[in-house]
Specification:
mainly alpha
Length: 402
């Protein structure tokens, strides 16, 4: 099996360390923590182009809408290659099992959220229409670290875990945009990403298919794709969609290698195509992004425990694993799609348990999917507590091995 890049471990450490610092600050001095994350940067508000409500420009907005676009691009690049490139794990019918497991896990999480909300929440809280969007995503980085300890390096279950967790995050982000109130959407602005993608493909991207060395050098320049990404992000945010989706439209226009080495494969460090060069150039900005995201959005108020915390944990710990197993069973039994080579049916139980870790996307979805205040803080606490599933599974796997 191929080696996964060590960058994942470093990014996971940055996210976890940021969340640890944020949690310390939020509990030792809550007033200064919330003042910090809501500070108006430069004393200015967002322009009308980016916000119809003249909202203040805050560190919370900057991290969630601007910097996390880098992380979404980093994840989407791997999913795009897995689907498009030769021997990619999502090529053709090989996508059936990961796709159904992903959709099953998301459906299970959403259904359990809605059911527990009706049972546990007060009537006023139960009317929150979009709260079910919160538990849809699975943690990618921290689940990978825990999965590596459970399965061992190079196990095929790890690669399926990455595909499922990346897929649930990206689909969850897309649903978050689709489910926004129609009044907040200004879809005419989406012509900007379309123009950016078309222009950069015609002027640079398509030349990667040419025969001449001059055309290849033209296609290999990075600045046109960066500029197109900025224009695309501006159009997505102006349209009222989550800024984390802003760079994704440009992805198909960037020339890439013609062979897939695997999800987050270490071998991609030796490729010289523009997409992989951009991916490598993003490492240190991503480290800073995840550290800031963990600190500003991952600070858990330990006194915020309420029924919403239980609803979040129920959706992640119960709905997500059961839904994932149901989706995988549908693919294997009903559609007769085989497991990836080296993967056993029992491995799916561990994989389903690891999918119960939800952190990055749930924290990103809180502001849009739930009312602010204590309900959002209680859900944030639930998302943080869901990470306990990782150490528990690692300890259980160690006991069973002994």
């Amino acid at each position: 099996m191929y080696r996964v890049s060590a960058h994942l471990n470093h990014l996971a450490a940055a996210l976890l360390f940021g969340a640890f610092l944020g949690t310390l600050h939020a509990n030792l001095d809550p007033a200064s923590y919330y003042d910090l994350i809501e500070t108006r940067l430069g004393g200015v508000s967002l322009p009308d182009l980016l916000s119809s409500t003249r909202a203040p420009l805050t560190p919370l907005w900057l991290v969630g809408e601007v910097l996390m676009a880098l992380f979404a691009f980093y994840l989407a690049k791997e999913l795009w290659e897995a689907h498009r490139l030769e021997r990619g794990p999502l090529r053709g019918m090989r996508a059936t099992l990961p796709l159904l497991a992903t959709l099953g896990g998301m459906a299970g999480a959403g259904l359990i959220w809605m059911g527990l909300t009706v049972i546990l929440e007060p009537p006023g809280m139960a009317q929150t229409r979009t709260g079910w969007l919160v538990p849809l995503g699975s943690e990618v980085l921290l689940a990978w670290v825990a999965g590596r300890a459970v399965f061992g390096a190079g196990h095929p279950a790890l690669h399926l875990l990455l595909l499922i967790s990346i897929g649930s995050n990206l689909v969850g982000l897309a649903l978050l945009g689709v489910m926004l109130p129609a009044a907040s959407l200004r879809l005419l602005w989406l012509t900007l990403p379309v123009l950016a993608v078309g222009t950069v493909w015609l002027t640079h991207g398509r030349h990667a298919l040419a025969q001449s060395e001059r055309a290849h050098r033209r296609a290999a320049r990075l600045w046109p794709y960066i500029l197109a990404g900025l224009v695309s992000w501006l159009g997505v945010v102006a349209a009222g969609l989550p800024g984390a989706l802003g760079l994704l439209p440009v992805l198909p226009a960037i020339p890439h290698s013609h062979r897939a080495f695997g999800v987050f494969a270490e071998a991609e460090a030796f490729l010289s195509d523009p997409l992989n060069r951009l991916d490598r150039a993003m490492f240190w900005p991503l480290m800073a992004t995840l550290l800031a995201f963990g600190y500003l959005r991952g600070g858990l108020d330990l006194e915020a425990f309420s029924t919403t915390t239980l609803v979040t944990l129920g959706a992640l710990w119960l709905g997500k694993p059961l839904g994932l197993l149901a989706g995988a069973a549908l693919a294997v039994i009903a559609l007769r799609r085989p497991f990836p080579r080296g993967l056993l049916a029992g491995d799916m139980l561990w994989l389903a348990g690891l999918s119960a870790m939800g952190f990055s996307l749930p924290l990103l979805a809180l502001d849009s999917a739930l009312p602010g205040g204590m309900m959002a803080e209680a859900a944030r606490l639930g998302a943080g507590l869901s990470l306990i599933a990782g150490p528990v599974l690692v300890a259980l796997a160690g006991l069973l091995r002994r």
